[in-house]
Design a protein that fits this description.
single chain, mainly alpha, 3-stranded antiparallel sheet, 5 strands, about 5% strand, disordered C terminus
């Protein structure tokens, strides 16, 4: 590994820490972030003070070099060594030790918030940073019977909140309604359809996957991930969730009334934002169509491998059936030829080997569905949410223009200063809301571009799965080759005792 410093080689973990505690990316470590990082080491205050004295540059800020020194000293202190400059001076040529700092989720979130505050017109997040915000898993709870109809429950776990709760589909509906009420200017994913009658296992599984994507997009959203509504959904362990949630957040104001950026939204909106939005919307339509085609092709690939698995299983079973059929009772038909007996023995041995090939295709199908198809669906869900957001803005913009034009008519026939002042304030408020809407769309557009990294992930998964999966299948076929080539012994070779009656 290349050495960044004179006192030792820098492990990747150090660079990861730098990216977190230096949100401005200007080689200046945020002081508060650094203090929070030190506290996570669980070292005594006296030790932390010693580390601070050794790395403080006396320049009012901490550099990348100072941070790396601090991380090394923390690691040494956790090993029970006394804090000293000599510890790292004697480490030249070796990789510096990795400190134990526990869960860094809260630091990542703080870093994201600071980054937005320092440059509110740039999202400035990578795909990996977004994914690190939280990971939500959803599994099916064993089926329960209602009074008239059975219903499905889901077990929802949140890595960030360290929570595990049970939810029904209607709870997800209530969550979406509340979020649309509070965050109409953000991407809120769509929910899968509700099917009351005739919901087979395939439909339930597809809906589970869709709900998982729904929650992960919310839990990884830079703004929504910090909201109390989502936190309630992911952590509340009581019953009657949808009604409790609606009661708890009844009359919640939308983001325009609570976000500090709404006050200065006009300064955050470039002059050509409306024109740029039109261009981007057309681009996103093309991207959506392209990803939709990729998803459909990937689904066909999965279906082919499913059929391949079924065919291999049937092929093996047929061989087994033939192997278990009655042996020849006399040489009247065979004329002393022992081929059938050799084949019966060989087919019995081939059956489990061909079943292994079928199982290998099943494993490949599962990985393709999870790592390729579902990831493509995740990005398509993102693009659909973006389209819905733009449609909401278009409806809002049309309504705003209609209100503005209709309010101009009465003003010509009134001189009441109170009425005129109220109308002017309403127009100004709507213009501020429009600017905030545009600013949010600007940020959401950048978030969509961040999610485009999914294609990289999909291509990597596809290459790895095909390489590993087909190589495994090829090996299974190769293992069969010696058996197949010796099904019939060569002339003169020692042969097993024939079962043919003489």
């Amino acid at each position: 590994m290349a050495a960044d410093l004179a006192f030792g080689n820098v492990p990747p973990y150090y660079r990861e820490m730098y990216d977190i505690v230096c949100p401005s990316q200007e080689n200046i470590v945020d002081h508060d972030m650094f203090i929070k990082l030190l506290v996570k080491s669980s070292l005594p205050k006296q030790t932390l003070s010693q580390i601070w004295d050794l790395v403080d540059s006396r320049q009012g800020y901490l550099s990348r070099t100072g941070l790396y020194k601090a991380l090394a000293l923390v690691a040494f202190a956790q090993q029970g060594k006394p804090v000293s400059e000599k510890l790292i001076q004697n480490f030249a040529g070796e990789e510096l030790p990795k400190p134990s700092l526990g869960d860094l989720t809260d630091l990542r979130i703080l870093s994201i918030r600071l980054r937005r505050e320092k440059n509110p017109m740039r999202l400035g997040l990578t795909y990996h940073e977004i994914c690190a915000l939280d990971t939500v898993q959803i599994s099916l709870v064993p089926e329960k019977k209602g009074l008239f109809l059975k219903h499905v429950e889901y077990e929802v776990t949140s890595q960030r909140n360290k929570s595990m709760v049970q939810r029904r589909y209607n709870d997800f509906v209530a969550l979406q309604e509340l979020l649309l009420q509070k965050f109409p200017y953000r991407m809120i994913p769509q929910l899968p359809p509700k099917k009351v009658i005739g919901a087979d296992d395939q439909f339930i599984e597809e809906r589970r996957k869709s709900l998982k994507r729904f929650l992960n997009l919310l839990a990884r959203h830079p703004v929504i991930s910090e909201d109390k509504i989502l936190h309630f959904f992911l952590t509340f362990a009581g019953t009657d969730v949808q009604h409790k949630m609606k009661d708890h957040f009844r009359g919640v104001l939308d983001e325009f009334n609570s976000n500090e950026q709404a006050k200065e939204a006009e300064e955050l909106v470039p002059i050509d934002s409306t024109n740029q939005l039109a261009i981007v919307r057309e681009q996103m339509k093309q991207v959506f169509n392209g990803f939709l085609q990729l998803k459909e092709i990937a689904e066909r690939m999965v279906e082919r491998n499913k059929q391949e698995s079924v065919d291999m299983l049937l092929f093996g079973k047929e061989l087994c059936s033939l192997a278990n059929s009655a042996s020849t009772e006399s040489d009247w038909g065979s004329g002393g030829n022992e081929t059938w007996d050799y084949l019966r023995n060989g087919m019995k041995n081939l059956h489990p080997m061909i079943s292994n090939v079928s199982s290998a295709y099943v494993e490949l199908v599962s990985e393709e569905e999870n790592d390729v198809v579902d990831e493509l669906n995740l990005f398509l869900d993102t693009l659909t949410a973006y389209k819905d957001l733009c449609d909401r803005y278009e409806h809002f913009s049309v309504a705003l223009r209609h209100k503005s034009s209709s309010k101009m008519l009465p003003r010509r026939s009134t001189t009441n200063p109170i009425v005129i002042d109220a109308e002017n304030q309403a127009i100004q408020q709507n213009e501020k809301r429009n600017n905030f809407f545009l600013h949010c769309i600007h940020m959401e557009t950048q978030l969509v571009h961040t999610y485009m990294h999914i294609l990289v992930k999909v291509l990597q998964s596809l290459v790895n799965l095909q390489t590993k999966g087909l190589s495994n299948i090829s090996s299974l076929w190769q293992n069969m080759q010696p058996l197949v080539e010796t099904l019939i012994p060569s002339p003169g070779a020692t042969t097993p005792t024939s079962t043919i009656s003489r």
